[in-house]
Amino acid sequence: MKIVVIGSVAAGTSVAAKARRNTEEAEIVVYDQGKDISYSVCGIPYHIGGEVEELSALTPRNAAWFKKRYNVSVFTEHKVTHVDQANKQLEVTDLVSGEKKLENYDVLVFATGASPFTPPPFNQKEYDNVFQVRNIQDARDIGAYSAKQPKKALIIGAGFIGLEMTEQLIHKGLEVTIVQLEDQVMPPMDADMTFRVEEHMRAKGVNLILSDTVKTIEGETSVERVITTNGVTIEPDIVILAAGVRPNTELAKEMGVELGASRAIAVNNKMQTNLPDVYAVGDVAESFSVITGKPIYRPLGSTANKMGRIAGDVITGGDLEHRGVLGTGIFRIFDLHVGQTGLTEKEAKKEGYDVEILYNIKPDHAEYLGGKELTIKALADKETGRILGAQAIGQGGVDKRIDVIATAITFKAKAEDLFHLDLAYAPPFATTKDPVLYTGMALDNALKRNPLLTPAELIRRQNSGETLQIIDTRSKKDFDKSHVKGAIHVPLGELRSSNAELDKDVVTVTYCNKGVTGNASQNLLLNYGFKKVYNLSGGNKNYQSYLKMLAQK
Questions:
Q1: Can you tell me the distance from the alpha carbon of 113 to that of 29, in angstroms, rounded to the nearest whole number?
Q2: What are the tens digits of pLDDT across the range 498-514?
Q3: Secondary structure of 312-359 in the HEC alphabet?
Q4: Which residues form a coiled coil (predicted)?
Q5: Is the CA virtual torsion 244, 42, 159, 221 positive or negative?
């Protein structure tokens, strides 16, 4: 059996390595049009910023290493230009010599990855100070240009790469401006969470321009000046395009491979395409949601490695299957860590779920040992209690909580199950009631007796004219500083003696600074016979953040 893999980064090399581990009988050949193989795309921003000193650290393996270790023939700077599926034959061009050859195969694997999108008007001309961040050659090119000591950077796009490059260029002393088409950074997340990121970025000196695009470019060989659609003029020394990626499907489409709804290659759980003996893995392939079962496209190195291993196993007689993804991701922006897993609020509602939403604001570990504030937004399905997703922002402990919740969602855990997890506790690492445990407890309470109200829903109800009895249970000092519109001030300590003055039949909303005292007040009023009492999720702190976001959008 002869296995030919097109593409040699995370997915392609994983196919080859797993196939070889399973059998010594197969001939395995890998072609890649680039110069480098098996490199860390995700590590490139950190080399550009200087955290990774040597570029070689991102390219630990080469073709010779693969040949010696796995007896796999890897041909770099070779482009597959045509596939004859009927005769199982490839046309391959040596990009150095220009020579062409024909290559037969028994099994073909597309691991052609994805290419960065070049938005207009940058797609109309090439400039010597415009770069993308997708491969090792991009890192070399940016490094060479950095010798000119640019002072001002323009970044187009505020996804993973855009934000990571922002952080690294700020660290290098550049002034950074971001232009983002959408009205928020990290569009896959909910806007009320990413607003916290936007505030942090602006505090660090980033010039963040949202809901805008570059309309015109001035300059012949270099971008000297850009003018946005909204009339903002920017004069950058270097431009980084980070406007997302598109799967490299051209060759596959030409031979009749079907694409999915996401426009990536459609595959089954064994990474097989619609054509016999043709597989697709990594950033060129579509995945599916663990929660909904529907196709999704989430190009990440971790998923690419997993897909490659599965395909390599299946091709050589194994029984591995792809079990889907949750879209779990994390990034660092200065001293803030931001993670997510599962469905966001907007995604869950689009899928038809009736969701309970919790904003949990707690320290990541004991405050007396330096614990810092961690904000978790978590969702549960009201019908089944199943956890659907979570987003977290903080200076520490984000990865741990997101990974725990991702594991729980994978195994269809309910909100109550989170509370009963036996998680590691010691003051340097967690609080006695870990943020994950509290998330489960509060969501379970909300599903059964103590309903939550988000700032968005509270404002919607107020704007619709609904009569609400809103009670601020904090100190007078905190109330005078800021409070919810229409709230009356009744501290928790006085609520037992004064609740008779309130109307038990009117929908009531309690709140405090972050949610705990508001919940205690909610319980008290329910015990005194109040018919419907909500606790404002995340308290006044979350509410004021939401108001600020509305004012700036």
A1: 17
A2: 999 999 999 999 999 99
A3: HHHHCCCCCCCCCECCCEEEEECCEEEEEEECCHHHHHHCCCCEEEEE
A4: none
A5: negative
> Which tokens is 66 given?
């693969």
Domains of the chain in start order, with CATH, are 2-113+246-315 (3.50.50.60), 122-243 (3.50.50.60), 329-446 (3.50.50.60), 452-552 (3.40.250.10)
Report residue 85 as tokens: 């599926």
Contact 313, 371 (CB under 8 A): no
Whether 77 shows a pLDDT value over 90: the answer reads yes
Type and span of the H or E element at 416: helix 415-419
The beta strand positions in 432-472, using DSSP E, are: 452-453, 469-472
Cβ atoms of 48 and 139 within 8 Å: the answer is yes
Place of tokens 């197969």: 26
Among candidate residues 1, 40, 42, 118, the one labeled active-site is: 42
- Among 2, 89, 72, 7, which residue's Cα sits nearest to residue 41? 7
The strand ranges marked E within 73-174 are: 73-76, 78-84, 89-94, 100-104, 107-110, 114-116, 130-132, 152-156
**Among the listed residues 400, 395, 447, 394, the one whose alpha carbon sits nearest the alpha carbon of residue 421:** 400
Q: What are the residues facing 393 on neighbouring strands?
A: 338, 375
Kindly state the helix (H) or strand (E) to which residue 295 belongs, with its residue range: strand 295-296
Q: If we measure between CA atoms, which residue out of 111, 145, 320 comes closest to residue 221? A: 145
Mean pLDDT, to the nearest integer, of 88-97? 97
Q: What is the DSSP string of 464-500?
A: TT---EEEE-S-HHHHHH---TT-EE--HHHHHHHGG
Q: pLDDT band at 60, cuts 50/70/90?
A: confident
| Cα–Cα distance measured from residue 390 to residue 341, given in angstroms and rounded to the nearest whole number | 5
512 carries an active-site annotation: no
Q: Give pLDDT, residue 553.
A: 78
Contact indicator for 13, 30 with CB cutoff of 8 Å: yes
Q: Residue type at 508?
A: T
Confidence (pLDDT) at 39? 83
Query: Per-residue pLDDT averaged across 227-236, rounded?
Result: 98
Residue 409: closest CA among 378, 431, 432, 435:
378
Sign of CA dihedral 180, 183, 185, 187: negative
The whole-number pLDDT of residue 43 equals: 92
Burial of residue 122 (number of CB atoms within 10 Å: 0-12, 13-18, 19+): buried
User: What average pLDDT does this structure show over 360-375?
Assistant: 97
Q: How confident is the model at residue 38 (pLDDT cuts 50, 70, 90)?
A: confident
Distance of CA 217 to the CA centre of its chain: 30
Strand partners, 469: 508
Classify residue 536 by burial, with Cβ atoms within 10 Å: 0-12, 13-18, 19+.
buried
Gap between the Cα atoms of 22 and 70, Å rounded: 11
Model-wide pTM > 0.90: yes
Q: What is the largest CA-CA distance in the chain?
A: 90
Q: How far apart, in whole angstroms, are the C-alpha atoms of residue 156 and residue 463?
A: 36
Is 290 in contact with 321 (CB distance < 8 Å)? no
